[in-house]
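Tip: read the tokens left to right.
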């Protein structure tokens, strides 16, 4: 556990919130080194807000209409996260592109999950893109957020097979199982101080061995 208590997470979500649910489930385990401090959504009806409230976690709707532009919205977001002393921002199906100013303010402290093996199929409808391209293997990626769309340094990836009769729904469901496993694992590694960004690469230090590390793709999960 960290000297100053568990890492405080701010989860940003716009919809269903199944990744949030996986994070909430993991972070309620006593030995997990992080807790969800606040959940913020840009959509009032997001199921994610409901999931957080059900578990007694502060859940806030930040209405984009209350802000003049994207920079103002992101400044508001930053104020909420700072108020809740958030150490790591986790995007979990957050459907807004963060402004460069926000990304800079939280540099190296924002994670995202994407339902594809990046750098393949960034952006919307990744699973549909994968099926249309005819790939045999698909998957999920947790990455740090930089100023691009799904372009930041990769923390963890997991692959799943694509079956000949897959639909967008069946492939998405198979990928989602991996997402729910990967995201809490990546948060744990961050909370344990084991992730180091080195240019495009993320080095994952072995547990209990500060300074020693291997590229994330070689780390065993
Ligand atoms: C997930 O597929 C995630 O990879 C993508 O958006 C989806 C969110 O699903 N970024 P949920 O809201 O976590 O259920």
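Filled-in amino acids:
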């Amino acid at each position: 556990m960290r000297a100053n208590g568990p890492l405080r997470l701010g989860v940003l979500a716009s919809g269903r919130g199944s990744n949030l649910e996986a994070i909430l489930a993991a972070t309620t385990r006593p030995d997990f080194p992080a807790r969800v401090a606040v959940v913020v959504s840009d959509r009032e009806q997001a199921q994610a807000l409901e999931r957080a409230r059900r578990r007694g976690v502060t859940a806030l709707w930040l209405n984009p209409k209350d802000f003049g532009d994207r920079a103002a919205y992101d400044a508001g977001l930053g104020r909420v996260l700072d108020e809740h002393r958030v150490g790591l921002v986790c995007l979990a199906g957050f459907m807004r592109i963060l402004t460069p100013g926000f990304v800079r303010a939280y540099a190296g402290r924002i994670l995202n999950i994407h339902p594809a093996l990046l750098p393949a199929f960034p952006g919307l409808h990744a699973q549909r893109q994968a099926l249309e391209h005819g790939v045999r293997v698909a998957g999920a990626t947790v990455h740090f957020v930089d100023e691009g769309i799904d372009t930041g340094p990769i923390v963890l990836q997991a692959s799943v097979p694509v079956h000949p009769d897959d639909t967008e729904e069946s492939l998405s469901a198979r990928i989602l199982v991996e997402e729910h496993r990967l995201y809490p694992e990546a948060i744990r590694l961050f909370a344990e101080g084991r992730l180091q960004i080195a240019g495009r690469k993320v080095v994952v230090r072995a547990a209990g061995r500060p300074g020693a590390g291997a590229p994330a793709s070689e780390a065993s999960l």
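The two ends are 19 Å apart (CA to CA). The helical segments are 18-27, 47-54, 70-83, 100-105, 126-133, 168-191.
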